[in-house]
Design goal:
By secondary structure, the chain is mainly alpha-helical. The protein is built from seven helices and no strands. Helix 4 packs across helix 5. GO terms for molecular function: DNA binding.
Length: 149
């Protein structure tokens, strides 16, 4: 458009940008024959590619390995420890998500069977029957904590 004789302001109005943006792009195209962005240094990497490659198999082998443990064992490029968030980000870029171990009671088949029996036995209880259980536990609670009404 600029080569067709349009002004910077007219081109900027068409694309909805500031006229200085059009001027910078025109200058960049004039000097480099391309409007691509110039390569920049960007943020410095904390870990090397080799360290990232070494962390990947260890997390694939042990899926419950926490990122905190990997971060504690990894010395960064600037001789400082790497944050666990960095490890998680790099693993996520490789499609790996470190799992967290299950915290809670593990139910055996005997537990499941006992629960099923309890549910079967109490399936037909009425509201009146359940209210007796609630009042019983209320009394136990009051006696246990020494509350007298």
């Amino acid at each position: 458009m600029l080569q067709a004789g349009w002004s910077r302001w007219a081109v900027a109005r068409v694309f909805g940008v500031h006229h200085s943006t059009v001027g910078r792009l025109a200058e960049c195209y004039h000097t480099t024959s391309s409007s691509n962005k110039r390569p920049r240094s960007g943020q410095l990497h904390v870990t090397t590619a080799a360290q990232d490659r070494a962390n990947r198999p260890s997390h694939l082998h042990d899926r419950f390995r926490p990122a905190i443990r990997t971060a504690a064992e990894t010395i960064g490029t600037h001789h400082i420890l790497v944050s666990p968030r960095t490890i998680r980000n790099h693993l996520q870029a490789d499609g790996i998500r470190p799992y967290r171990p299950y915290v809670g009671s593990v139910l055996t088949p005997q537990h499941c069977h006992a629960r099923m029996q309890w549910c079967s036995a109490h399936r037909c209880w009425t509201l009146q029957k359940w209210s007796q259980v609630v009042s019983l536990w209320t009394n136990v609670f009051l006696l246990h904590f020494g509350v007298f009404l």
